[in-house]
Fold this sequence. Notes:
The protein is an alpha/beta fold. Among the domains are: 1-366, no CATH class; 735-877 and 894-1006, no CATH class. Helix content is 62%, strand content 9%. The chain is built from 43 helices and 15 strands. The strands form three sheets. The chain has an eleven-stranded mixed beta sheet with strand order 9-12-10-11-8-1-2-7-6-5-13, sandwiched between helices. Helix 2 (18-42) packs across helix 11 (229-258), helix 21 (503-524) crosses helix 38 and helix 32 (738-754) packs across helix 39. It starts with a helix and ends with a helix. 40% of the residues are buried.
Amino acid sequence: LLITLSNEGTKTLPPEQKPVALLCIGCSLIASSVFLFLKSIWKYDETSKLPRKTTSVLFFEFLVSAGASILTIVAMPHLDIVTNVTIFNGVAVISAILQLVAQCSAKQRNRFLMPCIFGFIFILIGYVLFLLLYITKNPSDIKMAIWVGLAVGGSILVSFNSWESYLKKTISDNSSFTFLKNLCSDIEECQNILYILSSLIRIVVTACVIGAYVPLAKMDWSILTSIPSRETKIIAIIIGVQLFSSTLCHWFALAACKMHALRRCFILPLYLASLAVMALLVIPVTVYYQDYRTSLNGTANINFTDYCKVAVDGRNQSSAVFWWIGFVLVTLYLWKLNVHRIERTQDLLIRRLYEGAFIEQSLLLNTRFDIQTKERIQKDVEQVKVYLCATMWHETYEEMMSIIISIFRLDEYRPKEDPKSNDFTFKAHIYFDDAFEAVGGSRHLNKYAKDLVKVIKEVFGYQQVPDQKIIQTPYGGRLIVNMPQGNKIVVHFKDKELIRHKKRWSQIMYLYYLLGWKLTRKFYTRWVQQSKLSLFLQKKKHNTYILALDGDTDFQPASVMLLIDRLRIYPHVGAACGRIHPTGSGPVVWFQKFEYAVSHWLQKTAEHVIGCVLCSPGCFSLFRAEALMDDNVMKTYSTESKEPSHYIQYDQGEDRWLCTLLLKQGWRVEYNAASDAYTNAPMDFKELYNQRRRWGPSTMANVVDLLGSTKIITKRNQSISKAFMFYQLFGMISSIMGPSTICLLVSGSLTFVLNINSAAALVISVIPPAIYLGLCFRLKSDTQIIIAAILSVCYAFLMLTVAISIIGSMLKEKTILTPSSIFIIFMAIIYLITAAMHPQEFNLVFYGFLYIICVPSAYLLLTIYSMVNMNDVSWGTRETKPAAGAAPPPALTPQTREEKEFWEELQKEYLEPLPDDKEKQKKMDNELRELRNKINFSFFILNAFWLVATFIFQIFNSTFAICIPKLNLQLQETGDIIQIEPIAFMFILGFAVTVVIQFLAMLYHSMEIHFCTNVCSIAFKDEFSSNADSSYRSMEDLETNDRDIESQEDLMNRRDCSAL
């Protein structure tokens, strides 16, 4: 339609307004290049280097951009609409040639060699007919001959767009020329900088072509300033629809391929797109037929057939048919293309984005090209091993029931001996901290450990549960349970007098046991060829995952499968986490439900899309063994805390610290919004404050660690750029300035409600938190929490009053165009749209009101409490002591000698109980207190500076304020002036930009990931198809030995203890 508007014969736009249509065509050409440029700039870092073969790559980009500009801007406006619809099918001519070369060089019995040859012939016939039919009709029309020649030349140049697909996948692999291989390696290594340069070339070339053509065609650019409103609306609607529909087409095409709907939802619709557009031409032709007959006034008698020849130039109908058939034949190989479920975009499409002018042709030709042979190759399925590792301590009976039911549910979904379900196997391990107590001079299982055994018996239900024996271990005892479908639960009961307790040491315990002992040691006990052993061990580490769980996590098998998908398909992903839902009841839980929802909807999705997730929570996250066993990950994670900062970063936020180590080593951490898990949240005020007292300082310590290592991380980690680190820096500054920002919010509320001076309101708003800050340094933590609870109620009533007052003010003054009103409405719209994008969780919006009135408590009082008490490194939750039991000691069976030696060595190296050294503990307490004082001084002095600066600006408000006129709902000035403080305006603007970035990232994540994974979750019974490396197939003896060893271990365990 845009090209038709620029045609000489169109009546919609006058001839002098044609530059407007040409400019819109240029915008549609460069829109995708602008998006690609911005995305590449975001990912740019110092490691991005210029390839050695830059000239060759950029030369092709110049040809394509020049061809597309000449074809669409210069030539096509002079052709008829049928030609313009179908000529883009001729851009497959170079693809046909490259496809022929690739298939002939493969030296295999190709299935699609003949269709490719015939496709090339049909496209050539189409070009010949196009030239003959246009030129022979009026040989004296030199201008038309020029336009036709430019159209042919431009379309041939555009056909170079898909050269990478054939060069990367086939020609370079089968060619003896080192130039082609070096060119491919350069493109892969320097892809980011190449995208930046190619995008700039396309933008510049398009601008030059349109800038040169308009004066040459004797058109004037000055018309752009005087376009009538009718034509402006027509152009704006068409260009908006074109850009929006092209983006949607690109996304839906990817979604169709990832959902295994390649043929009916990708190939077939794109084939029929050109035909559908031509079919739609019948509608306007039919509508205007009677008008045309009336306009003749009886001077001529014309039937409908003759009218169609006048309305639509029929010279190019035959060439259009040949072009379309040739295009279909050239891309016929796509019907047999093997696509994995949730295929990586970079493995599916060669180029990152689409071509706006010929979206359907670019998508089909840009799809990965594989040589289809007549011999079918049976592809192996790589089986992965998943260890479910849950840490327990003082969970309640109901909380234990949740995780045990979830594990049994997974056992039902994935039976061990089912040959149809061979994509992964799993074994569950539960590490129970502090499971023993002293009874009568001996060590017995405590109440919580016995509750776990009762839960397992209850989940078995009606089945007979025989007596269970416990294997004696150097760390306490071990219980092995055979579930109904053959999978095992291994419960490790830890005695804190024999081994270190707390969550991080339980994690270190299972990391070294499962990855160091179970995974690694059996390979090094064999005398085999070292190269094969190393390769096979690397494969095992890559395909072994650990699912970290808490003792109260409730999950479905579908959620586990979605996380496994991420790690199987993306080899650089070291960890993936799901959407965590807090459970429970009461106002404290309601507040957390909305808080968790907003943080996952916006913050975590933004981190996933524009960088990496910084924290993969230990309650439900999947880790790759290869990533955990990387340099400076497991070894550093096992470091004993010896410095005051270590206690805060290492022990208070162990999940975030583990992710920090993975990010530093270059691994990507991802988030999957469709992978749901449920965990119990603190239900009382004190428990919530103690939990966040751990999380707050540890989060700050890890983010500061990442920001301090920006240069190293951006160099090693391809997913993290300096722009993303700047985003994190702004978030860090916002967190630090949180208390003073809340004071300003309260100050504004007091000014609005009490109608007092803003400077006086600021002083009043600072007094309560300042007094609370002083009391926190003097009072016990329980007393601090009681005071915080009282102040939270007072602040909640103030926020409620302010919210009602602002709404009343908007109704009274009949305007929403004040800064406070605009900000509130803006945030409300974003939250509502975000919730609408998650319809299953839309009910959480009703908890948003509670969240708003509790903002001062969460971001002012809680921040003060956590900062002042950061020297308290106790856990703070589930601190109850188990009651003494009187049951007789169970019969113990000793474990094997080799495993016993492993545990004794591991205990001696890492897990030996820490001595109860009073002097050392006292010294560490003093050092923690000193660290607390230093950090608190810096933290609160920055907030004080911010408040003082704001106070000064408020005193001299008339001098520094930004004055803007007040508008009513009709956007008319009311005569009043609104004064805005510069500092507050800049901070609010920065916060708004951050929210917009998170919102856009949420939209992208919801469409690109959440939708696909939700739709694909119904197909979990499908087998995963993966390409096994040929070197792995040659090691079937190692696979057999591996299975033999596991069978021997199972037999040994059956001898040692009976099934529960």
